[in-house]
Write a structure and sequence with these properties.
Length: 208
């Protein structure tokens, strides 16, 4: 008794006891079944492996910030650069690359990143805050005052970071009026600034 290959073309003829060409029909049927099955499976075997889609920018930024807060500056820098490859005008990534540069002592590079960030968003508070710190560390009191005053104008006057910025403004102005201003060094609080010290303000107090 012959078996019927279900679902294959010519299966009915293959099983016909009156057929004189049973071997030929069997071969044709099996061949066609193989073509159908092969056409279905081949793309799955030879298609390139699928890759996971990249994280949304918000998640990638959050991960980069965590690396930076842990002191893993090199890894954080790679993450921020990867973000810029996807979004070259991202002010948050630009600002934090400035913070990485500042942490390495490259104030000029840090300022270039802050300026690039502010070209994208002139009212980006974090960049204004950090730019003021970098300018004060460089000895540019007038520039620092201008940056901090712009920062202070964005938030309520009694918010903690605005109070701090006004304190630094007063110190910088006192330095400008001093005959030995050139010899002044930035206050200790400015020498090792928090890399993301304005973030709490941006998340909370700005919503008042």
């Amino acid at each position: 008794m012959l078996l019927i290959v279900r679902g294959c073309p010519l299966s009915g003829l293959v099983g016909s006891p009156s057929s004189k060409n049973v071997p030929v029909l069997w071969g044709a049927g099996l061949f066609l079944c193989g073509v159908i099955v092969g056409g279905f499976l081949a793309p799955r075997f030879f298609a390139p492996p699928t890759t996971s889609p990249p994280l949304p920018l918000v998640g990638t930024l959050a991960e980069a910030h965590r690396l930076l807060d842990k002191g893993l500056d090199a890894e954080a820098e790679k993450s921020y650069l990867a973000i810029l490859a996807r979004d070259p005008a991202n002010p948050e990534a630009l600002t934090h690359l400035g913070n990485v540069a500042f942490g390495r002592g490259d104030i000029d590079l840090a300022l270039r990143y802050y300026e690039a960030s502010l070209r994208q968003d002139p009212s980006y508070a974090h960049a204004l805050w950090d730019k003021g710190i970098a300018l004060r560390a460089k000895g540019d009191d007038a520039g620092a005052i201008q940056a901090w005053e712009a920062f202070a104008g964005l938030f309520p006057p009694d918010s903690s970071d605005v109070v701090q910025a006004k304190k630094w403004i007063a110190e910088a102005k006192a330095g400008l009026s001093s005959p030995s201003a050139v010899l002044l060094k930035p206050p200790e609080s400015l020498r090792n600034p928090s890399k993301r010290s304005a973030d709490n303000l941006l998340r909370g107090e700005a919503a008042r």
